[in-house]
Structures are given as structure tokens and as C-alpha cells.
Amino acid sequence: xxNYELLKSIIRRRSRPTGKAAVAYSGGADSALLLAAAADALxxxxxxxxxxxxxxxxxxEKRKAVALAKKIGSKVVVVKTREIDSPSFSGxxxxxxxxxxxxxxxxxxxxxxxxxxxxxxxxxxLSDDGDFRPGAKAAAxxxxxxxLREAGFTKADVRLVxxxxxxxxxxxxxxxxxxxxxxxxxxxTPEKLSLVEKSEAFLQKLGFREVRVRFHPSxxxxxxxxxxxxxxxxxxxxxxxxxxxxxRLKKLGFxxxxxxxxxxxxxxxxxxxxxxx
Length: 277
Fold this sequence. Notes:
Blueprint: H1 4-14, E1 21-24, H2 29-42, E2 47-53, H3 59-72, E3 75-80, H4 87-90, H5 96-115, E4 119-121, H6 135-141, H7 147-150, H8 155-165, H9 190-205, E5 211-218, E6 223-230, H10 235-240, H11 242-252, E7 256-259, H12 271-274
Parallel strand pairs: 1-2, 1-4, 2-3, 6-7
Antiparallel strand pairs: 5-6
Helix pairs in contact: 1-2, 2-3, 2-8, 5-6, 9-11
């Protein structure tokens, strides 16, 4: 398999001298492959999957992540992160992701030291390099290594190798923390994150695979707009279900419900940076 043996070689080299590693793990396609490769390269007993649990991480995703890590055979440690308590994060500036990842890597690093790990890994790939990702600075600050990137993996490579290994995440849509659904400058609160989480869960129960519910404020009276992003092949079905969708999302707390005709876009809140002259 392309680059897989190289990936395992990098993991082994990076894990010296203890032969143990910690993976900052979310259960997405990238970190799942990384965890499986680390378990393969070092043995499952020498790898821990560390999950950062906070209001920004959907509860359903955490349950799936824990189940997959246990199937891989690695020990799972769930650590509470409190990024939302920091105004540097909750104020939702453009470098919000740095403060979130900084808190995550601080907690993961502390856990890894107790385990005796020589290194902390995260699931960045070459495909992440083209977008606005201030979280990469946090990884550098905490010396968190990215073996997938180092081995030359793109997102397409991750899916190809995951499929060959039989990982259930091979075709899993890209995930991002719930805070990414709010536009920069919109204060992040547990209530807003819960609203987004429940709205996306509802759409997923209707069978939509690629789902984002973007939160936008509307006017001085506190209105709220849901801007729904779905896979391009699912837009027509959403229109057929529009009454059910609108009724449910308004009941949850949105004032208006809209469907983005551009469809699903990873990092669409960052378009404001790409369009600046």
C-alpha cells in the first residue's frame, strides 16, 4: 500500500527511545488511520488514543471514536478540555483554532508523559496545508508530530489505505469542531454549540451524510439563521424534506432556515480570507 510501510517506519523512529506513543485522536479518517498504523507499528499496548472532550465535540462522534479505538486495541483516555472558558477562544477570533488546539495538545502531552510516551502524534496530512489552519502553530509549539504528512499522505491516500485496512472511517465525511460553524467574531457559547449539534444530528438521522449547519446572527433583535450545507447530490432531497427540516430547526431555536446552493464546503467560513484583495 502506498506509503504505509514508510508511515510505520516514521512512527517507530519518532517513538524512540520508549517505543510508546500517544495519538491526539478524534475518530475522523485521518486520526483513525494514524492510530491503526501506530498500533500496527508499535503494538496496541504501546499506543494510547487521547480524546479531547468538550462542548465543541459532538457526543455521538465521541462514542464512535471510543468504539473504534477499542476495536483497534489501543487504550483510550478521554480528557476534559476547557477552551471555552478562555476569552481567546470563546471570542471567536480568526486564530480561534490555535487556542483550541493549544489546550488540547497541553492536555494530551500531560497524559502522554504519564503513559511514558516518547511522542505525541496528530493526524495532519498534506491536504491540510492549503487552508487557513492556525492550529498547526499549536502543534509546532508542543512539538506534536504529523507522521501522515511526513510520509506524504494526502486525504485521498488516507481513504485508500483505510479502505485496504478495513477501517470503517475510510469513507467518513470530514469533520470539524462545532465552533467552526460560527462566523468569526460571533461569541461561542455552549448553548449555540448545542443548537448546531442537535440540528446536524437531526439531518444525519434523515440520512444526509455530508452535513454542516452554519450559525449566523440575524439583526439586532437576536434572530438566528441556519445555513445548511449538504453534499451536492443531496440538495434536491433536502428541498423535498424542507418542511420537516424547517419545522425541526425552528423548534430547536433557529429563526430562519436556509439551504446553501454551493453545497458542502470544508472551511467555508474561511472564504472571507480567500476573497480579500
